[in-house]
Amino acid sequence: MISHDVIIVGAGLTRMRAALEAKKEGVDVSIVTKTYPIRAHSVEAQGGIAASLARVEENSWEDHMFDTVKGADYLADQDVAEILARKAPEAILELENVGTLFSRKEDGKLNQRAFGGHSNKRAVMASDKTGHAIEHTLFEQVMKSEVNIYDEWHVTRLIAEDGVCKGIMAYDMRNGEIKVMKGKSTIFCTGGYGKVYGVTSNDLQNNGDGIALAFRAGMPLEDMEFVQFHPTGLYPRGTLITEGARGEGGHLINDDGERFAKKYAPEMMELAPRDILARAIQTEIQEGRGIDGKDHVHLDLTHIEEEKIKERLPLIRELTMDSAGVDPIEEPIPVRPTAHYSMGGIHVNTNCSTPLDGFFAAGECSCVSVHGANRLGTNSLLECVVFGRRVGREAANYASDNSMPSLSSNEYLEKERDKILHLMEGEGKEKVEELRKELQETMRDNVYIFRSREGLKEALDKIIKIRERFKEVTISDESKVFNTAYTNALELENLIDVAWNITRNALEREESRGSHYRTDYEERDDENWLKHSLSYLQNGEISLEYEDVTITKYEPKKREY
Fold first, then answer.
1. Is the distance from CB of 511 to CB of 524 less than 8 angstroms?
2. 162 φ, ψ to 5°?
3. Domain C-terminal end among 304, 319, 337
């Protein structure tokens, strides 16, 4: 059996920052990832990483914290928002010192652009390839540190016994074997679940794997009803068009030629938070003002200088030309909302610890509740590096203070082999592709930007039936090596449990807050719903509990932009 002091599951930016910090503490660190590390979804982050740097006049960490709390519709825990904002400048300095090539102004200082919901220019950027730049830089450092990397391993189980996390099980795709890895500490940095909606800015691997595995291991999930829809996904695929395009001066235009954001956010217009603009675009479409009556509007950059677009938005220009045949220098980009980010996830405290001893989580798969009901753009990359560092240190310290747990792998190996045989040799008639499509259509139809009791109830009933029908899924591929039919089935199982949690929680929350908008409860209700939801798997059902929001500096007020 393989064993390491600290096991980190995930491919992206959070797990690399965690690995570097844990390694610095002198423990044996391993990374387990189902894809090659630099192909992680973190490289898709385009617009920037937030920090209140001293070079911007009248910008402070307090301003950053307040913008984060207000943007979160006051559901963010304010002690955590303070950690994020305070640590941001230090995080930027660390990234720069290890070689991240950020964009600079003519005077040599870091350039920063405007971003939605921020009261100052805070987005430190590498043109429109910020995630790519940071990911590659930290990967160089990980390779230099000689961390153990197990890539193309698909984790299938979180092993928990007697209130202690003892490791993981994984399918080694290259060798076709199921393996057990034992560890003193295990960290999940497994990202989000955009594929639950089909039309998404996320890549193919974002199926909520870590969230679902933790849920099935008995961990509570927090605030799962809050899903962010980015306002500007490239029509029709949903590929991300960075908020930086609006930060550089892009306008949203409807079929009447109207710059319509003014109706929904009179002051900030196109730089309002994402939940507000996603609803604005969807409203324009539903009321018949989509371009040529279709379900998209225009993002117009044609008034911006050609050289500015080439310098600051080169990836966006390349993407729209290749994918939509549109050169943004000459014509507007067709956009519509796209599933983008999960504010909810595995319940953790400020040190990224879960209720299970030895189990930690950070990044998008977790909910430390720094984003509340709606995340501000550029705060996600910041969360990755700030809390990646934090979780790496905490997990390493835990490993140093505890001995390697005892673990018998035979029982777990037998369960996994039985599951594989059932998928390959079962007589069920259900197919992965058909169930996934049905699940995605259900979520898109009823658990989308606008929600209602009737629609959520219908969706919940369908998801419960899909969950039952999954037991009859069979796959035709019986090969051992790189069996993508098997991994697709595992990912569908995870998506189903994620969808189940989102929908059940959304049905219970009878208010509108941030990204969760109920047409039958259109106002925010602080008296009854200023609280986090916690969902547990108990006896095959979801059990819900609630926890107070931590308020330290800012009492809830009406959000106006």
1. yes
2. 55, 40
3. 337
Is the domain of 330 the same as that of 421? Answer: no
pTM (2 decimals)?
0.96
Distance of alpha carbon 553 from the chain centroid: 27
Domain boundary among 337, 364, 398: 337
Does 351 reside within a domain? no
Task: Name the residue range of residue 425's domain.
Answer: 410-548
Nearest one of 81, 192, 93, 16 to 553, comparing CA atoms:
81
In a domain, 241, yes or no: yes
Number of folded domains in the chain?
A: 2
- Choosing from 15, 122, 157, 274, which is the catalytic residue? 274
| Rg of the chain in Å (alpha carbons) | 22
Q: Which helix (H) or strand (E) holds 216?
A: helix 209-216
Q: Give yes or no for residue 335 having a pLDDT over 60.
A: yes
Indicate if 216 belongs to the active site: no
> What CATH number does residue 514 fall under?
1.20.58.100
DSSP string, 124-159: E-STT-HHHHHHHHHHHHHHHHT-EEEESEEEEEEE
561 lies in a domain?
no
Residue 432 lies in a domain: yes
Tell me whether residue 414 is exposed, middle or buried, using C-beta atoms within 10 angstroms of its C-beta: 0 to 12, 13 to 18, 19 or more.
Answer: exposed
- Summarize pLDDT for 276-320 with one digit per residue, the tens: 999 999 999 999 999 999 999 999 999 999 999 999 999 999 999
The model's pLDDT over 86-124, given as tens digits with 9 standing for 90+, comes to 999 999 999 999 999 999 998 888 999 999 999 999 999
